[in-house]
Amino acid sequence: LDPRIAATDRAAAGRSAAGAARSAAGTLPFVGRLARLLRALDPDVVHSTSLKADLIGLPAAALACRPLVWHVHDRIADDYLPGPVARVLRVLARRGPRHVVVNSRATAATLLPLPRGWTLAYPGLAPEQVAVDPAARAVPAEPVIGLVGRISPTKGQVEFVEAAALLAERYPTATFRIIGEALFAEQAYADRVRALVAERGLSDRVELTGFAADPAAAMDALSVLVHASPTPEPFGQVVAEGMARGVPVVATSGGGADEIAVAEDGTARCLLVPPRDVPALAAAVAEVLDHPEAAAERAARAWKDVQQDYAIAATADRLTQVWRTTARSR
Question: Where are the membrane-spanning stretches (predicted)?
Answer without folding.
Answer: none
